[in-house]
Design goal:
This protein is α/β, with parallel strands linked by helices. It is built from 15 helices and 20 strands. The chain has helices at residues 46-65, 68-84, 86-97, 101-122, 159-172, 187-199, 213-221, 234-247, 269-281, 298-313, 333-348, 380-383, 401-408, 424-433, 466-472, and strands spanning 12-14, 17-19, 26-31, 36-42, 130-131, 138-146, 149-153, 176-180, 206-208, 227-231, 250-254, 259-263, 291-297, 352-355, 370-373, 390-396, 416-420, 438-441, 460-461, 474-482. Strands 14-15-16-13-12-17-18 form a 7-stranded mixed beta sheet, with helices on both faces. It has a 6-stranded mixed beta sheet with strand order 9-8-7-10-11-19, with helices on both faces. Helix 2 (68-84) packs antiparallel against helix 4 and helix 2 packs across helix 6 (187-199). It is globular.
């Protein structure tokens, strides 16, 4: 099995300087496939967070005033460097997070490249408007301007890719940033920051502070931060949203999900099974948009369950650097415990376990892909986000579309949903009525730098990617001129 050859950098980045631990506390990051410590990272102090915000503040004026074409060239240079170091970054992501190399190298890192190239294009295309106001002898126009210092707080499931959703548009629009990666998976964030410096992005424009929740809270509460962009749990997102509201600072939240997958009686069952396996087990189910509760028409339910269980049970578990691996580990021992607790809850509440249902033997944080049937809408495994490889099949009788939509919408979440049907009219009627930020028809959950991403209800506020990301990192200024 291939191994990492480059020792990962573990320091923080503040004002262009790499900060060693010195007298600060440190914390370990693990290879979740082996449970072994990969490195020790620095636990930032409140003074470190303050220093990072001050560095970003000092860098803001020159960066915001840089010619848009110059900013675009620097972002394109970052994209080129990520592409040149793609194999290194993918292996580092796999080793620190656990996702198979086919995901880190085939999906995550290419998405980072695409994000920087796509948003580099926007740097030269930010426009305002002119309006004929009903005031005599006045010229009125608007400018779209950067916000200032933005705090970017990223999760542990797709650390590098989801950072790029925030970092690329923030930089393209002239903001400076302080990044706080998840403590479980900080290594690729540090490496990307290093590549930003190598690309020529000025010192202080990109800063990284590492550590746990107290570091994130210090960043959220800092008066010098104009905006917080957070991806993570709904519980933490509520706290961040409340704090941002009290401070009257901008906030974007991409939070949890419990995506319904509707499988109609006329669906291509083989395609639905394949797509739901990908949508439900991608990254071992550690995906906020994971397909996790399947509403399957009763006449097709038995066939669907049999094929879904067979596919889930045949998944090859192993280290993500092993080319034969289909399913990697969960990110931590705590995550294994959480998944196992929900599986026991499912059993206790009367769901029928078809396959899986236990941690895998051996080292690392592995959990066997698990399928339940005879699940009801009220069961906790059908209502609460598990963030692991647990799939719940809920057979439904022939009922009208409005009843089915009501059941699919009966959740606090609204990030994603999917519909499997041979009737495009029915599928699109359902898609219009389901409350979710993204609805997929006859396909697994895909993403693109140009496509808006985000949720409704407890799945978040705001959107990432596309023009929506540009709006999220800018504000509109009105300029009035007497003629």
């Amino acid at each position: 099995m291939p191994v990492q050859t480059r020792q990962p950098r573990t320091q923080m980045l503040i004002g262009g300087e790499w900060i060693e631990a010195g007298g600060r506390s440190t914390f370990p990051t693990y290879d979740p496939a082996t449970g072994k410590v990969l490195a020790e990272l620095v636990e930032a102090t409140p003074e470190d967070v303050d220093a990072a915000v001050r560095a970003a503040t000092e860098a803001f004026g020159a960066w915001a005033d840089l010619l848009p074409a110059a900013r675009a060239r620097l972002l394109l240079r970052v994209a080129d460097l990520v592409e040149q170091h793609a194999d290194e970054l993918a292996r580092l992501e796999t080793t620190d997070q656990g996702q198979p190399l086919a995901i880190s190298g085939g999906f995550s890192v290419p998405m980072v490249v695409n994000q920087f190239r796509y948003h580099a294009g926007w740097a030269t295309k930010l426009t305002g408007i002119t309006v004929d106001v009903s005031v005599p002898d006045v010229d009125y126009r608007t400018r779209r301007e950067p916000l200032g210092v933005c705090g970017l707080i990223t999760p542990w499931n797709f650390p590098l890719m989801l950072l790029s959703f925030k970092l690329a548009p923030a930089l393209a629009t002239g903001n400076t940033v302080v990044i706080k990666p998840a403590e479980q998976t900080s290594l690729t964030t540090i490496r990307l920051a290093e590549l930003c410096l190598e690309a020529g992005i000025p010192a202080g424009v990109v800063n990284v502070v590492t550590g746990g929740g107290t570091v994130g809270k210090a960043l959220v509460d800092h008066r010098g931060v104009a905006k917080i962009s957070f991806t993570g749990s709904t519980e933490v997102g509520r706290e961040i949203g409340a704090a941002a509201g009290r401070a009257l600072k901008r906030v974007s939240l991409e939070l949890g999900g419990k995506a319904p997958s509707v499988v109609a009686a006329d669906a291509d069952i083989d395609a639905a099974v394949a797509g739901n396996l990908m949508g439900g087990l991608l990254n071992s189910g550690q995906v906020c948009a994971a397909y996790t509760r399947f509403y399957v028409a009763r006449p097709r339910a038995e066939e669907f369950v049999d094929k879904l269980a067979a596919g889930a049970g045949s998944q090859v578990l192993g280290h993500g650097l092993d080319s034969s691996t289909q399913l990697g580990p969960l990110v931590s021992a705590e995550q294994v415990s959480q998944v196992d607790r929900y599986v026991q809850i499912g059993r206790d509440e009367g769901a029928t376990l078809v396959t899986g249902g236990s941690p895998a033997d051996g080292d690392g944080f592995f959990y066997r892909p698990t399928v339940f049937t005879d699940v009801t809408d009220s069961m906790r495994i059908a209502r609460e986000e598990i963030f692991g490889p647990v799939l719940s099949v809920i057979p439904y009788e022939d009922e009208d579309e409005l009843d089915l939509v009501a059941r699919a919408n009966d959740t606090e979440y609204g990030l994603a949903a999917v519909i499997w049907s041979g009737d495009v009219k029915v599928a699109n009627r359902l898609a219009r009525r389901i409350r979710a930020g993204s609805v997929y028809i006859n396909m697994p959950p895909l993403l693109d730098a140009a496509a808006a991403w985000g949720g409704v209800k407890a799945s978040g506020l705001g959107r990432e990617n596309g023009w929506d990301a540009i709006e999220a990192f800018t504000e509109v200024k009105s300029i009035w001129t007497a003629l």
